[in-house]
Amino acid sequence: MLKGDIDYDKLIKRFGTEKISSELQDRIKKVTGEDHFMLRRGIFFSHREMNRILDDYEKGNKFFLYTGRGPSGHTHIGHLVPWVFAKWLQEKFDVNMYFQLTDDEKFYSKPNLTLEETGKFAYENALDFYCIRFQTRKNKNYYQHKKYSNSLSNCSQSSKEN
């Protein structure tokens, strides 16, 4: 549970982002033809290189979106908020979306989870992601641990136990 005041400026400095200014919001609205309610309401307060992305887009250059999930449990509203915004960006800019599920990372960082459990959560989380109705033909899904052979699963389990 969140307690106390949030120092947004400290977060912006720590993560190397910039505030989303009213000028940037106006520019996004001009390029996309509408403003997104999450920007209008200040749900997202900072960005990284959005001006450069808009510059490139206006010159006809392509870009892609990248997001993901560390599957340590079931999807909740905190996961859905950026996904809803990412869907809007995908639709407005007609770009590909890369969605990575870092099941291996969660396996190593959560001592109580097995590879089987993180794999199950990854699959469930991917289904939740697609329920938002992203443009399926423009999506690429990556399960981090499935990129490798079964021998890595055996090594991973052994490594975690030792």
Break the fold down into its secondary structure elements and pairings:
Layout: H1 8-15, E1 18-19, H2 22-32, H3 37-40, E2 46-47, H4 50-58, E3 65-69, H5 77-93, E4 97-101, H6 103-109, H7 115-131, E5 139-143, H8 150-161
Parallel strand pairs: 3-4, 4-5
Antiparallel strand pairs: 1-2
Helix pairs in contact: 2-4, 6-7
How would you spell out the order of helices and strands?
HEHHEHEHEHHEH
The proportion of residues forming helix, as a percent range, comes to 40-55%
Which CATH architecture of the largest domain is right?
3-Layer(aba) Sandwich
Query: Can you say what the CATH homologous superfamily of the largest domain is?
Result: HUPs
Quickly name the level 1 CATH class of the largest domain. Alpha Beta
